[in-house]
Amino acid sequence: MHIVNVDEMRDLEARAEREYGLTSHILMENAGKSAAEILADYIRQRQDISELEVLVLVGPGNNGGDGLVMARHLQARGAHISLYYWKENRLIPANSTREVPADDTPAELEAAIQRTDYVLDALLGTGRSRPLPESMRTLLGRVQQERQRRTTLHLVAVDLPTGMNADTGEVDPGTPHVDLTITLACPKQGFFFFPGREYLGELYVGSIGLPPELERNLKTEMLTGELINSVLPRRPLNSNKGTFGKVMLFCGSPPYPGSAFLAGSAAGRIGAGLITLAVTEQMLPIYASAFHEATFALLPEEAAGSFERVSTLKNHLEGYRALLMGPGLGQSPYTREVILELLEELRAMPDEQRPHLVVDADGLNNLSALERWWTLLPPGTVITPHPGEMGRLCHGLKVSGGGIDRLELSRSKAREWQVTLVLKGACTIVTDPYGRTRINWQANPALATAGTGDVLAGMIAGLLAQKVDPFDAASAAVHLHAVASELVSAQIGDTGLLASDLLPQIPRAIMRLRS
Question: In terms of DSSP H, where are the helices of 95-189?
C-alpha cells in the first residue's frame, strides 16, 4: 500500500482522467461509495445502522462532495442523515428534504449535535493550506466537546481530519481528534508524523477506483501485514537448521550482558537456525546459564590485544549469513579498535562469503566518532539508529522522534551512506540506497523501554540469516516487532512492557500474519 504526498495524489488523479477517462466525478462517486461501505461495516459490528443518526459536516470542495456521496449510500442502508453545509450555514435535518430556516439553524444544529451518533468531518481535505476560519474551529470544537461529554458519539474523518497538513502532519488549533479516519486511495504522508499521527484514530483506506499500474513508480509504502507476509521466508517440510541460516552476535559486555541475550533470542524466535554469541570466557557463564539454545565462540580477553580477538571472530564466521555488531559492547578505545579491524576484515571478504552486517547501538556510537565512518562498512549493511544515535552519526544534528524531518533525512542518508537505514521512532522509517521507503503505522508507547532495540536488531539479523533481502528483512522485523508489542499490550496495556516480553510474541506475530 503506497503512501503519497499531496502532489503525488493530484498527479494520480490527473493521470487517471487523462489515461483512463476516470473523471473527478467518477472518482468521487467511487470514493464516497467505498467510504460508506467501510463505515457501514464498522458500525455493523457495534449496532444496527438503521437506528443511527449521522450528521455530515459538508465543506465547499471535493471533500464535501465525498461526504455527500457517503451520506447518500449510508441513507440507502437505513441511516438517518442530517446535512450541514458549513459555508452556506444550511442545515437539512434527518428524514427531511427541506432546509431549516436560517434563523433556526443555530438551535437546530445544536440539537442535531446533541442527538447524533456519528459526525462525519467532510469539511476540508488535502488542499487545506491556510488556518481554519474561526467559525469552522468553533463548529469542530463544539463537536469535540460533545464527544467528550457523550462516549456514544463517534467522529469520523473523510480522507483526513480537517486542518491537518497531509504532507507534514502539522495541525491547526481547530483540528479535531477523531475516532477513525477513512482515507481515500492511499494513506497520506503526514499521517505518519507527529502531531498529526495522534489525531487520526483507527485508519481505514477506501478505494477511488485507480488502476494499480498508476502507482508503479511510487517509492513510499506503508508496512502492512499483507506486504510483510509476502516477504517472509517459507518453511519447507524438508528443512534442517542449516536451511534457516546461522547468526553470529558480537554484542554485550560486563555492564550490559542483557543485550546479547535479547538480540540472540530474538534472532532465534524469528526463525534463524543457529545462534552463536561471540563472548569472552568471563562472560560465558552468564549466557550459558540463561541461553541454553545458543552456541558460543570464545574470544580472547582484552589483554591479548585487538588483533587476536578479531582473528578469532573472523575464523568463526565461515558459513554464517548474518553478523550483528553493537548492542551492549560499550565505547572504550579498545572496543572501537576491535570494531574497526573487524570491519576491515569484512570488507576484504568475497561477497559470497561475507555475512550480512547489522550495526546497532554501541556499534553506531563508536563509528560516530570517526570522519566518513560509512566508508568503513561492507556492502549490504543495515544500520538501526534511534534519534539520538542518528544525531551523533550526523555530527550533532538534532533528530526528532516523530517529526517530518525524519523522512528526508532517512532518504538522503541511506543514499549517501549506501546502507539500509532503520530510523527508529514512534513510526519507524526503513529506507534503502535507491530511495525506496517504508513506514510503520503502529505506534506503541509500550516499546519505549530499554532493550527493545536489541530485540529489533536481532530480528533483522535472524531474517538476514534466512536469505531475506536487507530492505525486506528490516521492513519485516520492524512490522513484526510492532505486532509483538501489540500482543503484549493486549494483555498488560501500554505500561510495564519489558523487552524480554516481546520474545515469545514474535512467532505469534508471524502466525497472525500468516493466518
Answer: 105-115, 134-149
Q: How far apart are CA 515 and CA 503, in angstroms?
A: 20
d(CA 300, CA 306): 9
Separation of alpha carbons 322 and 312, rounded Å: 17
Residues 308-322 pLDDT 10s = 999 999 999 999 999
DSSP code, position 355: P
pLDDT for the residue 330:
95
Whether this model's pTM surpasses 0.85: yes
The SS3 call for residue 276 is strand
- pLDDT of 216-227, one tens digit each? 999 999 999 999
pLDDT digits (tens, 9 = 90+) for 367-389: 999 999 999 999 999 999 999 99
Distance between CA atoms of 119 and 482, rounded to whole angstroms? Answer: 31
Please state the rounded mean pLDDT for residues 146-163.
96
Provide the 10 A C-beta neighbour count for residue 202. 11
Spatial neighbors of 10 by CB under 8 A, at least 6 apart, are none
Residues of the chain by 3-state class (helix, strand, coil), percent to 5: 45, 15, 35
- Neighbouring CB atoms inside 10 A of 78's CB total 12
- Residue 280: CB atoms within 10 Å: 16
Strand order in the sheet with 180-184: 90-92, 80-85, 53-58, 118-122, 154-158, 180-184, 202-206
Side-chain half-sphere exposure of 317, counting CA atoms within 13 A: 25
Phi-psi region of 326 (alpha: psi -120 to 50; beta: other; left: phi over 0): left
Half-sphere exposure of 14 (CA within 13 A, CB side): 6
Residue 129 reports pLDDT greater than 80: no
Can you read off the three cell numbers belonging to residue 152? 456514544
Q: Which residues contact 18 (CB under 8 A, 6 or more apart)?
A: none
User: 80-85 and 90-92: which strand pairing?
Assistant: antiparallel
Start-to-end CA span in the chain (Å):
19
Alpha-carbon distances, residue 337 vs 266, 333, 343, 344 (angstroms)? 28, 6, 10, 11
Give the C-alpha separation, 22 to 28, whole Å: 10
Cβ(264)–Cβ(323) under 8 Å?
Answer: no
Measured at the alpha carbon of residue 440, what is the angle toward residues 385 and 199, in degrees to the nearest 5?
Answer: 115
